[in-house]
């Protein structure tokens, strides 16, 4: 491993021009850096693979409970799709305006300054990355183990063991090869789309045949309250989360990022609405609300003979989401270290594999610890506040940068109403999480703010005594062997 540098081929005196051209070709092949090797199709696969995960199989219950009726819940799913598309388009503008890798870190650094950018790295390493990975890993482990124990209770330790095995496998893949991780993502994305289509088809067929009794009273406003509707939107947005990270490793930024985001998010929104239509066609509201695994319950009614395959397909869907998270999170830390805002060891990569091996290996223990110590609801509550807070800051920073630098080149620019709407909604989600779950949200807020003194001690340490500056400089500049 070594820090990313360009290896220059020094020829001897008197070489011909042809040999120099060959050397230049070799030099381009021998560059040691994280390459943008993800084209349009893998980019769409990574976005859809990251977005379409366990959320669509878990969130329908929460959306229905808080919206109060099937009709309103379908509207919530469509609204969440539109909001997610707005956010994705904002990130498309950010990704094409600031073409350096780093995603949230780069956008915050360029628009709001070094402190918000450092805090994003801090929470990404401390709990957002590990918590998000552990959350999806636990869902993966549950759906793998559940068919072997139904109808009995599944041992918790066995779920966590299988979750760790799945996580370890994908960490190893991402340490080994970017292309292998990309190919796995394309394959798993195809499988999860097949799973969604397998749910949609019998539901649509039953609807065409006249099974519409569940929709006769689809819009009932009696059970709707304004304080619960935001919770329905929050559950729906969780199922759409993850679309912003693809800007880390997409090639041909100006063309591929906007096109990949639009194609993938429109497709995901249509699939999500159709899946919920299928759920509501086959299952009565009470049946859906009593189910802890909606897709499995749906399969027992509509896919007899294939009901045992649905948990495996859901597990593979979670695996694709897990692979996308493991792929992008270390790269943000890699870029932060390369810019001098994170320990330099995170900027080292494997000299032949061109993967961020140290960042992956240093994050792996935190993933395992968080997986063992937490459950799905705790992990979701822990990461939600900081994740949405920095998403809102990124789009707010984009608006501020537009105002301050109106002549800055923007190859892809969204209408002003889109970032304004998305920013307001994002800050509303953050404020509502403080109201609905003050304990977990408060812990997340404190962990985020704990990065402020760390920033002043390690990055902006000019006001410290000379002895302290030397100590923190040595620890900050530690390198791999």
TrEMBL record:
Biased composition range(s): Basic residues: 1-11
Stretches that traverse the bilayer: 38-59, 71-92, 125-145, 157-176, 188-208, 228-248, 260-282, 309-334, 355-373, 379-400, 412-434, 446-464
Region of interest (Disordered), ranges: 1-26
Chief localisation class: membrane
Membrane topology classification: Multi-pass membrane protein
GO biological process assignments: L-cystine transport; L-glutamate transmembrane transport; regulation of programmed cell death
Keywords: Amino-acid transport, Cell membrane, Cell projection, Disulfide bond, Membrane, Phosphoprotein, Transmembrane, Transmembrane helix, Transport
Reactions listed under catalytic activity: L-cystine(out) + L-glutamate(in) = L-cystine(in) + L-glutamate(out); an L-alpha-amino acid(in) + L-kynurenine(out) = an L-alpha-amino acid(out) + L-kynurenine(in); N-acetyl-L-cysteine(out) + L-glutamate(in) = N-acetyl-L-cysteine(in) + L-glutamate(out)
Superkingdom in the source lineage: Eukaryota
Keyword Signal: no
Record's GO cellular component terms: microvillus membrane
GO molecular function, one term: L-amino acid transmembrane transporter activity
Compartments where found: Cell projection, Microvillus membrane
Pfam families: AA_permease_2 (PF13520)
InterPro entries: AA/rel_permease1 (IPR002293), AminoAcid_Transporter (IPR050598)
Subunit structure: Disulfide-linked heterodimer with the amino acid transport protein SLC3A2/4F2hc; this interaction mediates cell membrane localization.
Family statement: Belongs to the amino acid-polyamine-organocation (APC) superfamily. L-type amino acid transporter (LAT) (TC 2.A.3.8) family.
Protein name: Cystine/glutamate transporter
Gene coding for it: AFAP1L2
């Amino acid at each position: 491993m070594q820090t990313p540098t360009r290896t220059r081929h020094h020829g001897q005196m008197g070489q011909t021009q042809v040999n120099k051209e060959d050397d230049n070709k070799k030099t381009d092949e021998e560059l040691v850096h994280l390459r943008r090797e993800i084209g349009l199709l893998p980019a769409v696969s990574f976005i859809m693979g990251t977005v379409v995960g366990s959320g669509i199989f878990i969130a329908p219950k929460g959306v229905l409970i808080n919206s109060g009726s099937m009709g309103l819940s379908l509207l919530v799913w469509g609204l969440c799709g539109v909001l997610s598309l707005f956010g994705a388009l904002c990130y498309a503008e950010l990704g094409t305006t600031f073409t350096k890798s780093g995603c949230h870190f780069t956008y915050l650094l360029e628009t709001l300054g070094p402190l918000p950018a450092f805090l994003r790295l801090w929470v990404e390493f401390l709990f957002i990355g590990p918590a998000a990975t552990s959350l999806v890993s636990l869902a993966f482990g549950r759906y793998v183990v559940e068919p072997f124990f139904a109808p009995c209770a599944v041992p918790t330790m066995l779920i966590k063991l299988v979750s760790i095995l799945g996580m370890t496998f994908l960490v190893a893949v991402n340490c080994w090869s970017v292309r292998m991780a990309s190919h796995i993502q394309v394959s798993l994305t195809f499988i999860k789309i097949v799973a969604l289509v397998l749910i949609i088809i019998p539901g649509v067929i039953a609807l065409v045949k006249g099974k519409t009794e569940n929709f006769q009273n689809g819009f009932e406003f009696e059970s709707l309250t304004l304080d619960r509707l935001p919770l329905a939107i929050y559950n729906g947005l969780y199922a759409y989360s993850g679309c912003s990270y693809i800007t880390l490793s997409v090639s041909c930024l100006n063309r591929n990022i906007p096109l990949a985001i639009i194609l993938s998010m429109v497709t995901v929104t249509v699939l999500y609405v159709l899946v919920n239509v299928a759920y509501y066609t086959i299952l009565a509201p009470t049946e859906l609300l009593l189910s802890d695994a909606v897709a499995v319950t749906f399969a027992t009614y509509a896919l007899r003979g294939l009901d045992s395959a649905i948990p495996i397909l859901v597990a593979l869907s979670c695996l694709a989401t897990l692979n996308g998270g493991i792929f992008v999170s270390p790269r943000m830390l890699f870029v932060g270290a390369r810019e001098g805002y994170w320990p330099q060891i995170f900027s080292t990569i494997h000299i032949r594999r061109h993967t961020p091996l140290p960042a992956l290996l240093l994050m792996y223990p935190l993933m395992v610890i968080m997986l063992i110590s937490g459950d799905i609801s705790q992990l979701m509550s822990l990461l939600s506040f900081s994740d949405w807070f920095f998403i809102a800051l990124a789009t707010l920073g984009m608006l501020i940068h537009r105002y301050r630098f109106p002549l800055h080149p923007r190859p892809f620019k969204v209408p002003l109403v889109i970032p304004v709407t998305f920013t307001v909604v994002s800050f509303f989600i953050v404020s509502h999480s403080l109201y609905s779950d003050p304990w977990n949200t408060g812990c997340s807020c404190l962990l985020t703010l704990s990065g402020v003194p760390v920033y002043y001690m390690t990055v902006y340490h000019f006001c410290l005594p000379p002895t302290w500056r030397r100590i923190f400089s040595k620890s900050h500049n530690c390198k791999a062997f």
